[in-house]
Amino acid sequence: MQQSVYESPDRNLAMELVRATEAAAIRAVPFIGRGDKNAADKAAVDAMRKFLGTVDFDGVVVIGEGEKDQAPMLFNGEHVGTGNGPACDIAVDPIDGTSLTAAGRQNALSMIAVADRGSMLDASSVFYMDKIVTGPEGIGVVDIRKPIGENIRALAKAKGKPVEQMQIAVLDRPRHAQLIDDIRAAGAGTRLLLDGDVAGGINAARYETRIDMCVGTGGSPEGVATACAIKALGGLIQTRLAPKTDEERQRGIDAGLKMDHVYTADELVRSENTFFVATGVTDGGLVEGVRRKGPIIRTESIVLRSRSGTIRRVIADHLAEKWL
Question: Are 30 and 87 in contact (CB under 8 A)?
Answer without folding.
Answer: no
